[in-house]
Amino acid sequence: MITDPNKALLRKYFLGHCDPEEIKHVEDFVLNGTEKNLVDEVLMELSLGPELEHDNMSKAEIEASWQQFDKAIGPKTFKQANTRIKYYRIIGWLSGLAAACLLIFWFVVKDGSWSFQKEGDSEMRYQAAIGIPLTKYPLPDGSVMWLTAGSSVSLSAGFGDIDREVILQHGEAYFDVKRNEELAFIVRSKFITTRVLGTAFLVSDQPHLGQASVQVTRGRVEVQSGGKIFENLTIGKVVTYDKATEKADSTHYEKMLFDPEAKRLFIDDVSFEELAFRVKQVYGYELRSRSHRVTFGRFTLELDFDRGIGDVMENLSWVYNSSYEIKGKEVWMK
């Protein structure tokens, strides 16, 4: 039999790592108003602690976990009048905490680029840390999002209740979407809009690269880009927008850009500029070239998140008949 949650289990719950049985147990425990001080203490450590070392969770992520928790137990309060006062004391404290720690932004388009401006309580931002190839985020509606290093995303404050709209400012995001027949899940980037009810797909839109794309990995997806609407896209389909021609086309892809489960990033027939960007993104090294052939070459390879830069460069130099030298955080290809 499961006993009353201790701090470890409550922390696990608010970080989104509980199994279904543990989730039900924690929500019933909190709804009964038992040991409210323990809940307060855990939330204080997670959201207001000076270092936020728990699973590399940001304050926005803690807020998202809290919103999911709030929605999970909220309806039950109307059925249990005897616990309502205790419940609202907890939610009142949490609301104050959320207001204190949440960074809210709204998007504008300026000089051809996307940017954030602080404005009231309209949106919530997720910023993936540099140096971590892939970061997982639970969303308030029960969906899951993975961001590559440096990628930036925002959600509206009413996400999951009023709408399910996501803005990808820049970078790559993989979404495993919880199905909701009433609220479409919409992802907007500068060049592509993707609409689904419940499926899995990957959006890539890096401002300095020549293409933006959407890859479908499960279910059906609708994509709008380049003045076209691509309907009923299924697994294996990709829509690619060419920024130079301002046109979009749909075709099949062989491998995903990145796979959250396999922890690999796949690049296909890319320039040295993009290769260097991906090496910096995954491994944190600046890739440079002293070879004309390398500088103007095309590259296809997988970057394994768990391998070191030396292993990757050994493979790269063997395939492309070149040598390399590592100096500090720089890698020179010759």
UniProtKB/TrEMBL annotation:
Keywords: Membrane, Transmembrane, Transmembrane helix
Transmembrane segments: 87-109
Domain FecR protein: 138-222
Matches recorded under Pfam families: FecR
Superkingdom field: Bacteria
GO molecular function: sigma factor antagonist activity
InterPro entries in the cross-refs: FecR, Ferrdict_sens_TM
Protein's recorded name: FecR protein domain-containing protein
Organism of origin: Sphingobacterium paucimobilis HER1398
